[in-house]
Write a structure and sequence with these properties.
mainly beta; 39 strands; 5-stranded mixed sheet; Maltoporin, Chain A; 5 helices
Length: about 700
């Protein structure tokens, strides 16, 4: 595919669209608006999406519901240049524009893509991204370090619960689908007094999963058992103060048995694993608006979580081939305790600074995160334990000036200091600490009231860390040959990402049309990359710094409601990613190769059509190019296209739906490894993959009151 020509064609089509529509603008002035204006809330200030000098996608509650997405992994294909990796019961690891993690084992890592739910930092805990009663998912692409610090180097996913109503409202939802899948949820919002309103939701989801363990004669070893509770309140003790209260409870008790020696959905393991999360989190956010010059925002959040990630490492049963086989289990038990405090002052009205009308903000941030690990592994003489404590302190600020009636300039900067303290049961200790800065600067030029072109530069960062597992396991059997190589990688350095971006946003309410197009070019310095060494199916994973890399491409999206009965939408992401230098243990240099989990194109297109006043049909297609599974081998996924459909029938306060995801039952993969693990063929290396969701067909009933 000629990406240069395709990029030019898409850009030309999107830019010409408003000019064509403008020809009949006068005839459309009296037409009722059929498309809503989207407001982005995850940035410092709530703004219309067409006013942001950045690439942002907003997945609204209606689109999440129409896709019947129970978890974020089933919705992200609607956002361009966003990929995911499984290696667990859910796709917990995310990549934006080719940057992001694909797994986590013994060592603690700082995610490149952050996840926040109602303002609480769940970065690195993707299994918590369940979607019942979520009002929107905002996908911020590119460095977000001014706003989110080290957890936003490549981008951020910002999830927000449904808004708290001023009256009593609620819903009850029932779900049935194949693979013995059931879901039940209730959400209720109520105003208790003039000063307090709240919303509560609870959802239980169960499914046998998509794997058959033919050794144990079970179909539920990759099951889903997920309970989600959300409580949100808004208290207004006075005209000047507003206090938002949040509580989350996640009880995820999923199975993990995804890997097949026969390269299909049938497994042979005798000790299937688990992928669990037991977490509580709360947040208090107070806003003071009683001053003429500024608004003060104060927030504090606490999170505590326990998790188990375990699996049958040999993927087989004892006796599958006596004399050749090995038998082992690997279990990781984690405890995470996290506290975050933040104070932010924002101008309530512009001030004059250097002769220009200027909006300003300033903030302070503090985080303390403690993570304890207990690893029980068959080949360890004793359980491995580690403790990794991190403290982050940051100060940030931003100025935004209106240079002319149409031209606006914004500049922000954040300095963050982190101090890490690592110790484990093998006697390995390390205390890496340093500071890093990031920021963004942009120019916005308003062509018309709802049309903007922009250019920006942003710098993101993520902290370094310790390869504790790699250091300790050089003493394990068959690994002595890797000693020098791993000891040289005891500590990995911070990574920095700098991105240039330019784009065009437009919103035409008179034509019920919205479109966005942007192009970006990014440099990655001291890239943190996952790699591993392996001997006789015993793996040692480590994190290394490549010298640099480049990621560039574009994103485009369009939404149009040409009539009261029809809505159509599409998005496209194009991406190129290259290593400038990455040396593997065997001497291979990946210079010039594409980075892992970075498909060169992603597309999403669909429509909704009101067949009858109470009957609606929706169809959509996701497409994704092939991508490398890893930086340590050359195996790739296949490109694929997935079709989804939904038929909704509305009757009074009820909505009944028949839905199908992956209607044509296409096989696609979300993770891959290349090594030998089958004793029946004497451990001949081959590509083992984890499959994505097969065809899902189900019924959904929703009652609103």
């Amino acid at each position: 595919m000629n990406y240069s020509r395709l990029s030019l064609a898409v850009f030309t089509a999107l830019v010409m669209t408003p000019q064509v529509l403008a020809a009949d603008a006068e005839r459309s002035e009296d037409k009722e608006q059929a498309i809503e204006r989207i407001t982005v809330t995850g940035d410092f200030r709530a703004r219309g999406i067409e006013d942001l000098p950045a690439s942002v996608s907003v997945l609204r509650a209606d689109d999440l519901r129409q896709r019947n997405a129970e978890h974020l992994e089933q919705a992200l294909a609607m956002a361009a240049n966003v990929n995911l990796a499984s290696g667990a019961s859910r796709a917990s690891f995310l990549q934006i524009r080719g940057v992001g993690e694909r797994s986590q084992f013994a060592d603690t890592v700082t995610p490149s893509v952050g996840i926040l739910i109602d303002g609480i930092n769940y970065s690195g805990m993707g299994s918590a991204a369940t979607l019942f009663d979520i009002g929107r998912v905002e996908v911020f692409r590119g460095p977000q370090s001014t706003r989110f610090g080290a957890d936003g180097m490549a981008g951020v996913l910002y999830l927000t619960s449904e808004a708290i109503p001023d009256y009593t409202e609620g819903l009850v939802e029932l779900l049935w689908a194949n693979y013995n899948t059931y879901g039940t949820g209730v959400a209720v919002g109520h105003r208790f007094s003039e000063t307090f309103a709240g919303r509560a939701s609870i959802y239980q989801y169960n499914s046998d999963g998509f794997i058959e363990n033919i050794h144990l004669d079970r179909k539920d070893t990759q099951n889903h058992d997920e309970l989600t509770v959300r409580l949100n309140g808004l208290w207004q003790p006075s005209d000047a103060w507003a206090v938002a209260l949040t509580y989350h409870r996640f009880d995820i008790d999923n199975g993990y048995d995804a890997w097949s020696l026969d390269l299909n959905r049938q497994t042979l393991s005798d000790t299937p694993g688990s992928d669990t999360l037991d977490s509580h989190a709360g947040r208090v956010a107070a806003t003071y608006a009683g001053a003429d010059a500024y608004t003060l925002e104060l927030s504090a959040s606490v999170l505590t979580a326990k998790s188990e990630y375990s699996y049958d490492e040999d993927w087989a049963f004892e006796g599958i081939r006596p004399g050749w086989e090995y038998n082992s289990e690997d279990k990781y038990f984690r405890d995470r305790d996290q506290v975050e405090l933040e104070a932010r002052w924002l101008s309530a009205q512009p001030i004059q600074f250097l002769g220009q009308s200027t909006d300003w903000l300033f903030g302070l941030y503090w985080q303390d995160r403690q993570q304890d690990l207990l690893r029980e592994y068959t080949y360890l003489n004793a359980p491995f334990t580690s403790r990794y404590d991190t403290q982050n302190q940051a100060a940030y600020g931003e100025l935004s000036q209106q240079w002319t009636e149409r031209l606006r300039a914004t500049a922000g900067l954040r300095y963050e200091r982190y101090e890490n303290d690592y110790a484990d049961s093998r006697g390995i200790t390390a205390e890496p600490s340093t500071g890093a800065w990031g920021g963004r600067a942009s120019l916005e030029y308003r062509l018309q009231p709802n049309q903007t072109v922009y250019a920006s530069i942003a710098r993101g960062f993520k902290s370094g860390g310790v390869n504790g597992e790699a250091l300790g396991r050089v003493e394990d059997r068959n690994l002595e040959e890797f000693r020098d190589f791993l000891e040289e990688r005891a500590v990995f350095e911070p990574e920095f990402l700098t991105s240039l971006e330019t784009g065009y946003h437009a919103f035409f309410p008179e034509h019920s049309l919205r479109l966005h197009v942007n192009a970006f070019y990014s440099w990655r310095d001291d890239m943190q990359v996952n790699a591993y060494v392996e001997r006789d199916a015993i793996f040692v994973t480590y994190r290394d710094n490549a010298s640099s890399g480049r990621n560039y491409g574009m994103e485009a999206s369009i939404e149009h409601v040409p009539s009261d009965r029809l809505r159509w939408f599409a998005s496209l992401g194009l991406l190129r990613s290259k290593f400038d230098d990455l040396l593997l243990q065997d001497g291979t240099n990946l210079r010039g190769r594409n980075q892992a989990h970075a498909p060169e194109y992603q597309a999403h297109v669909g429509f909704e059509y009101l067949v009858l006043p109470n009957l609606e049909f929706r169809a959509e297609v996701d497409a994704r190019d092939a991508f490398y599974y890893s930086n340590t081998h050359d195996e790739r996924s296949e490109s694929y296209q997935l079709m989804h459909m939904r038929l909704n029938y509305y009757w009074q306060q009820w909505e009944f739906s028949l839905f199908a995801r992956n209607l044509l039952d296409e096989d696609f993969t979300t993770r891959g490894f290349y090594f030998g693990n089958d004793p029946r063929d004497e451990y001949t290396p081959k590509n083992y993959v984890q499959y994505g969701e097969p065809r899902r067909i189900g019924l959904n009933a929703r009652f609103r009151f």
